[in-house]
Amino acid sequence: MSLYPCEKSYPDAAFLKTMYPQSVTLLYEYISDAADKLEYEGSFMFDEYPDREVVLKFIGDIYARALPSIPSGDQPNSYLYELIAVMTINELIHRRMRKREF
Question: DSSP class of residue 67?
Answer without folding.
Answer: G
